[in-house]
Amino acid sequence: MTEVRFGVTLPLPGIPLREHRRIVTGLVDAGYSDVWTAEGGGADAFTPLAAAAAWDPRLRLASAIVPVHTRGPAVLAQTATTLADLTAGGLVLGIGSSVPAHVTDLNGIPFDEPFRRTRDTLRFLTRALRGEVVSGAFDTFTVRGFALPEPPAETPKVILGALRPGMLRLGFTEGDGAVTNLLSAEDLATVRATVGPQPAGKELVVKVFVSPTADADAARRGSRPFLAWILNQTPYHAFHAWLGNGDLLAASHERWRAGDQHGAAAALPDDVIDRLFIHGTPQQCRDQIAAFVQPGVTAVQLYVRLEPSFVRGTTQAGAGGGLTWRSEEFTERALDLLRALRPRSAQGAPSGQGAPSGQGARSAQGAR
Question: Which residues contact 320 (CB under 8 A, 6 or more apart)?
Answer without folding.
Answer: none
